[in-house]
Amino acid sequence: MWFERKFKEQIDSHRAFVEKFIAPAVDAIEETTIMPLDIVAALGAHGYLGCLVPAAAGGKGLSYVDFGFAVAGLSAESSSIRNLLTVHNMVAASIYRWGSTAVKERWLTAVATGKAIGALALTEAASGSDFDMIDSTVSRRGGYLELCGTKTWISCGLIADVFLVFARFERQHVALLVPREADNVTVEPITRPLVGARASMLATIRFNHVRIEESDLIGGVGFGKVAVGSFALDIGRYIIAWGALSLAKTCMARCLERAGTTRRFGTKLVRHQLVAKMITEMYLAINAAEAACIEAGMLHDEGAPSAMDATYVAKYTATKALSSVSATAIRLSGASGCMDDTVIARAYRDAPILEIIEGSSELHEIQIADYVYKSFDFMT
Using one digit for the tens of pLDDT, what is the confidence trace for 108-144? Predict the structure, then answer.
């Protein structure tokens, strides 16, 4: 698309980073399920862990459209890399947007540069990611506050230095920053292997009467769900959309290489009508997803009220595209596509995870339908 030509210099820069730091380590990342700290450090040094944070604070200061192309470039080979980018940028951008002066002075530059790793702590065993069913609580204890609760399935929880935690405080939602080093914080690894995004470094985090200061609250009392939570999750969905799009493009590229060079029954695979149909469907799904991702980025950059709704559309379209494209790519690749260490196999495993996290596709269908319904004046 013309957007790729316009952003060619930036895209080439992202690809060069991948070739130098990520591509040589992808297989090891999948096998060990651990993200090498030298890659985390490189991402931080190049500003990728603070993409939406101004350069003056150690970030990259990107527009949303630029940010999308950066995510796509970095995620083309590994959804585990995309997962780190997701949770960390959610925390970094939230600190920049909603943090107090004291919080920014302590954490913003450290997080934006990757010297401190952030993780988002929303999910609980009984409530999932439903804000209104959160059991974690913040209580007043004299001149300080106290956090109690347990969060689970926390991506990058194993290596995080600070957690953006969501809880209830005086019957209202709050978000707060809690350092890993705080007393009575326990990090427990989740050792059961994931189907995909295997180096997500999941953990259960226990907060057992953890003392915090009122200045650690992000966005103030009552803003945990409607402001901080919705802002952070929107960023997460946006990153997932571009990551899914990138993996789908990689799958199609590998298929085209095979279909254009492999001959069956006297002709190249691409010349067989049903193979041509499969390639056409992949191309159309990817083009629709890319258009949705770019539109979401442009609307965010314009500050449009419908930007978050566009993000729902982008995530839904892109993750659905990845599911269909990766499944088709497996079939077109034959036995080679079924090998566990291929990017197509990784994408096929990653696809259902991306349809679940930061809101399932089924939930997005409700939200998208509501947006469409309200956008027609004659129906309201």
Answer: 999 999 999 999 999 999 988 889 999 999 999 888 8
User: Do residues 59 and 91 touch, judged by C-beta distance below 8 A?
Assistant: no
The residue with tokens 């030298």 is: 38
Q: What span, in angstroms and rounded, lies between the C-alpha atoms of 27 and 47?
A: 24
Gap between the Cα atoms of 231 and 120, Å rounded: 12
Q: How far apart are CA 354 and CA 367, in angstroms?
A: 17
Whole-angstrom distance, CA of residue 30 vs CA of residue 34: 8
Q: Identify the DSSP state of 378.
A: G
Place of tokens 């254009």: 260
Q: For 73-96, what is each residue's pLDDT tens digit?
A: 998 888 889 999 999 999 999 999
269 φ, ψ to 5°?
-55, -40
Query: Residues 293-311: pLDDT tens digits?
Result: 999 999 999 999 999 999 9
Q: What angle do CA 126, 128, 133 make, to 5 degrees?
A: 65
Confidence of residue 26 (pLDDT cuts 50, 70, 90): confident
pTM above 0.70, yes or no: yes
Q: Mind giving me the DSSP string for 215-271?
A: GGBSS-TT-IIIIIIHHHHHHHHHHHHHHHHHHHHHHHHHHHHHHHH-EETTEEGGG
* Calculated CA dihedral for residues 66, 67, 72, 73, nearest 10 degrees: 70
